[in-house]
Amino acid sequence: MATTPKLVAYLRVSTGRQGRSGLGLDAQRAAIAQFAQAHGLGIIGEHLEVQTGKGSDALDRRPQLVAALAQARKAKCPVVIAKLDRLSRDVAFIAGLMAQRVPFVVAELGPDVDPFMLHIYAALAEKERRLISARTKAALAQAKARGTTLGNAALAQANKAAAVERAEQLRPLLAELSDGRSLREIAAELDARGITTPQGAKWSAAGVRRLLQRLG
Fold it and tell me: Number of C-alpha atoms within 13 angstroms, CB side, residue 148?
């Protein structure tokens, strides 16, 4: 009799806001369960990470990820995650995990994605975020240029649209950074990651507050 292929599930949450952003625990668990059922796979273990400290992408701050890797290595099976950003948004971190020689399966991407491609997807996601930021800045600059004829109302509307778009782009990351950090600390972390405001400037505590208010 054939043995059912195995998986070790890894879930990661940091704040209650992730539930509203589609990255909550229930959503992750449901996605993994649906993926396993659809492909005839058995979940032999679940490891839930609740990140609270700084340096959120360091493996030594992920004891449950370390445990998931150990269990998967022993069982000679992959680790399954619901979405790639539940593993990490950092390309270097994902690339480093490849050295662990434990394959990862992303339920959202399907079972046929080569584990080596995971950091490629992460790199593409980072690139896309940079392109979105560049397009937002360009649109804002054009709106400012037209402001001399369209008036302050049009310029204000363009500013608001850019701010809302930027807030949505940063929603998952803010959900992670908001766990135990002050507004000033969040601003410093955004700056450290090279993430700018819609106007391309550095973040302030007041700017972070306005961003969080836009996300409700």
Answer: 3
- The DSSP element (H or E) to which 131 belongs, if any, is helix 118-150
pLDDT for the residue numbered 40: 92
Average pLDDT value for the chain: 76
Distances (CA, A) of 187 to 14, 84, 202, 212: 18, 24, 8, 12
Q: Which of 122, 139, 145, 8 is CA-nearest to residue 65? A: 8
| Rounded-to-integer distance, Cα 106 and Cα 104, Å | 7
Determine phi and psi for 99, rounding to 5 degrees: -70, -15
pLDDT confidence bin for 101, thresholds 50/70/90: confident
- Are 80 and 107 in contact, with CB atoms under 8 Å apart? yes
The sign of the CA dihedral 81, 84, 87, 92 is: positive
In contact, 14 and 174? CB cutoff 8 Å: no
Average pLDDT over residues 54-76: 81
Cβ atoms of 65 and 10 within 8 Å: the answer is yes
Lowest-pLDDT choice from 54-58, 139-143, 149-153: 54-58
Cβ contact 140:198 at 8 Å: yes
Alpha-helix residue ranges (DSSP H) falling in 21-105: 25-38, 63-75, 84-87, 91-98
pLDDT at 186: 84
| Cα–Cα distance measured from residue 55 to residue 148, given in angstroms and rounded to the nearest whole number | 45
155 pLDDT exceeds 60?
no
